[in-house]
């Protein structure tokens, strides 16, 4: 409110209208939303996990459900803990050490962590693919050559290799 260019009376009216909106929402939910639906939302918030959802989908679902269970996530700290508990393990590990307790900041840091983690996985996958290509037989590693015999039989000669071990056909590693 201090950032607004208003006289104190206008700031007071704005603050009251915000309180009215919050109070109106509380009254509306209490009057028109059944207790069974509230209980279901409460269970859903407690059991909500990110799973295969994107960060935006998880955040939207969390916010949708949390508006029905204001008492459970009334404090910013409780809201953050509940949100953090539902994150995927790989994101929760990155975020938990920061101990962020502002909900909007927590969400932003989680999005950043996800964006940082995603390219890391792509780089690791590229490296794995590159290493597999490195292990594939190259021109310097030759297959056994068949030698013709005068009696018509074909025999297999010794393996000719200048690089050492040949990669396994099953796993691609050199044994």
Automatic annotation (TrEMBL):
Region (Disordered) residue spans: 118-152
InterPro entries the record matches: Retrotrans_gag_dom (IPR005162)
Bias kind Basic and acidic residues: ranges: 118-136
Pfam families the record matches: Retrotrans_gag (PF03732)
Ranges for domain Retrotransposon gag: 31-88
Name this polypeptide is given: Retrotransposon gag domain-containing protein
Species per Swiss-Prot/TrEMBL record: Gossypium hirsutum (Upland cotton)
